[in-house]
Amino acid sequence: MTVTPELRAEELLGQLRSLADPENVAGMARFGISAEGTLGVSVSQVRVMARELKREAGRDGGAWRHEVALALWESGVHEARMLAGIVDDATLVTPQQMERQVRDLDSWDLCDGLMLNLYRHTPYAYETAIAWAGREEKFVKRAGFVLMATLAVHEKSWPDERFLALLPMVEREATDSRNMVKKAVNWALRQIGKRNATLLPAALACAEGLSASSDATARWIGKDAARELRGR
Predict the structure, then answer these.
(1) Do 144 and 80 belong together in one domain?
(2) pTM for this structure?
(3) What is the domain range of residue 166?
């Protein structure tokens, strides 16, 4: 590429700032999205920019995109970090990068997009999901369970045993009443059960067990998941 990654990242930041919409920031905040460093640029606009950047980089531009993505992330701008998660090259992402970035998360949309668009494609996704699910930090724990949910949906060739092994973690963390966490635990449980007919009984048994818990959060997770899983 003739343009350095750092310069391209600055150009993209300028483009994002030109699209800033303070009214959107307020609307996003009502949906639980952090206003810190947020410009109010729509996800659809970010995706258009991502497609353009990928076309610009071409088939062999993964390393260049990776450097652009790192520079975008370091800006601290919410939408720039969303863009970084879409354009980064998963083959170049390291566990150290994942750890640095997960500690920066402060919003569910950025967390979920990063897991779906980037981290699930890395070779460390499964082990990372397990490790993060046991962490105390709110968005780190959420990231672990969101990663489980996205892997259950997209990794079609993985053996059932990998997902059965995640159910004890769902049970263990089901008493965490923080909204961002409990919804992710619930999501992971539902997606494991919806994966196939083999995993469904095990996930449903887990959900029904939680439904009978003395803990209100665990009961909510279990009842909500059981209702959806029974309806399959």
Answers:
(1) no
(2) 0.94
(3) 125-232
